[in-house]
Each structure stands twice: as C-alpha cells, then as structure tokens.
Design brief:
Blueprint (H helix, E strand, L loop, with lengths): L2 E3 L13 E4 L2 E5 L14 E6 L5 H16 L5 E7 L11 H4 L7 E4 L4 H6 L3 E2 L1 E6 L4 E3 L17 H10 L12 E4 L11
Parallel strand pairs: 4-5, 5-6
Antiparallel strand pairs: 1-10, 2-3, 4-8, 7-10, 8-9
Length: 191
C-alpha cells in the first residue's frame, strides 16, 4: 500500500469527457451529469475515484454512502469511478464492483484513460465541479479518514453545500490521501 496525497486542484479546469459502463445498468456519459438524480439541472457534480480493495476507501465507505444519500434529492450528481488494474487486483474488477450497493453510479474505467485525463492519483480522490463542469474543489472527504467519530470538519460536504448555495468552496483545500491508483504495467502516467 503506497500512501499518496492528491496534488492541489487546478480550480476552474474543465471536467474531462468520459463514457463508462456502470454497475447499475447503462453507460454513463459526462454530459448526462447535467441533470441531478432529482431531475433538476445540477449545481454540483462530484466525481470520485475509489475502488473495492483500498483500506482508505473501506474506512470511509459508510460515509460515502451517507454523503450520497444526503445529497440524493438535491441538485447534485455523484459518480464513483474505479480505474485500478483488475488483473492484479481482482477485487476491483467489474463483477466485484457490482456487489456494491452505492446510492450513486459506480463506473468502470478499465482502460485507465479516464483516471489519466482527470489526473487522479489515489483512492479516494475527489473532484467537485460546478454546473459548468469547472473544478471547484479537490480535497479530502473530512478530517479523519480512519475514525468516523473523530470527524470535526466535513470538507467535501461543505464544498457541495457552498455550490448549492451559489457560492464557491474555500480555495484553501486539504489534500485527500489514500492508496495509489494501481496502474497496469507500462500505463503509469508521466510525472
């Protein structure tokens, strides 16, 4: 397990385009994220890079589900993407992903091209966009990845709420941390 921290987000950068299979049925395309689960135009779009086997993701999985449920009826669209090499990490393969019952779409980036386009580096890695697909937040979920009872600052939820209220999240964003993305041999992005 290689602990990796996310770099600062390039605030204002555009959300990369994607078209990925979902564990919940049809493929999901980036432009479909313009509509929230409640049918309204989105005001916030959250793209999370997670996976099944990472201990950091496992530690926050319940909180991710709670976050999805908290914002399910608001003008927010949430998707999670797994990009790990499933040949070396079979728990991260599409069939194992289907066993999860997330309240948001769980997408499979088998080619790893989407993770590269985003510049994702670890699981979890959070990218929050405004309605114009401009990056507004890239940081941590909260201030205690391991101990839910120790959480005093829900950074990601606060950033989503700011966008819903027509404001921008604070520019001072603390890095997320987790296991490095498990790249296929020869696919590691250039640094």
């Amino acid at each position: 397990m290689a602990l990796t921290h996310t770099p600062p987000g390039e605030l204002g950068s555009l959300c990369p385009d994607f078209d990925l299979p979902s564990t919940q049925g049809p493929r999901v395309r980036r432009d479909e994220l313009r509509r929230a689960a409640n049918g309204q135009p989105t005001r916030a779009i959250l793209v999370m890079f997670i996976c099944n086997h990472c201990p950091y993701v496992k530690a926050i999985e319940t909180r991710l589900m709670e976050l999805g449920e908290e914002f399910a009826q608001k003008d927010v669209r949430i998707v999670a993407i797994s990009s790990n090499d499933a040949s070396r990490y079979p728990d991260d393969g599409f069939e194992k992903m289907r066993e999860k019952n997330y309240p948001f779409s769980y997408l499979y980036d088998e080619s790893q091209s989407v993770a590269k386009a985003f510049g994702a580096v670890c699981t979890p890695d959070f990218f929050l966009y405004d309605a114009d697909f401009k990056l507004a937040y890239r940081g941590r979920l909260d201030d205690s990845w391991k101990e839910p009872a120790q959480v005093t600052s829900r950074d990601l939820a606060g950033a989503i709420t700011a966008l819903l209220q027509g404001m921008r999240p604070p520019r001072d964003q603390k890095s997320s941390m987790g296991c490095s993305i498990k790249w296929k041999p020869g696919q590691e992005p250039a640094i």
